[in-house]
Predict the 3D structure of the following.
Amino acid sequence: MNIIMINGSPRKNGATGKILAYYKEYFDKNYSGINIEIINLIDYNIKYCIGCEMCYKTGKCAITDDNVENIRELIKKSDGIIFSSPNYASNVTGLFKTFYDRVHITMEQLLYRKPCVTLTIYENLMGHKATNVLKELVMNSGGYTVKSLTIKNEFNVNPLNDKNKKNIEYSCKILIKKIKKNAPPLFSKIYTKIAVNIFLKPFVYKDKEKHKGIIESWIENKI
């Protein structure tokens, strides 16, 4: 079983990083046979998407020197994902948004049937807005959110109080349970079916050659 955790904070040892480290500690302590990997996006010099649509045709990004494709492969092979970002200006961080633009997981439905957890840390207001961005990313990429944590935390204060630890541990249990069950909820199935068959396929199949990479990804994932 493979679980990937994406840290969208530019401060990899900040509150978001501390919580992800606790996730890993809890998984390692309480479950065997699970491979856990934390991806700190700040460790990668992620370049901006240039809108060339090469990923549509080849299934690979045209930019190859920042290892975003390697992260994408880890997501593809994962059984569950935790997406996390602090709240910056009522949104995810620019770092996380740049990563999302580049990783081309939505058109290809790379999260198809994958259970996910979303984690947002905020200090003052509007933490739910960043949470909603993460949840929409999951849903629009074919996955489903099993638990969302939106944690209010003062700057430079350790977020690992008893209440937050309890919620983190609960979300771990739910994620493992859903991975083992391998059965997305009905709403997720209906939403993905509508998105793929009514919106994505008519657009993609208008030009099969241009969108060959997307089609190949769908076939591989049995969509």
Summary: Residues 2-220 form a domain with the Rossmann fold fold (CATH 3.40.50.360). The first strand starts at residue 2 and ends at 7. The beta strands are 2-7, 35-40, 80-86, 115-122, 144-152.
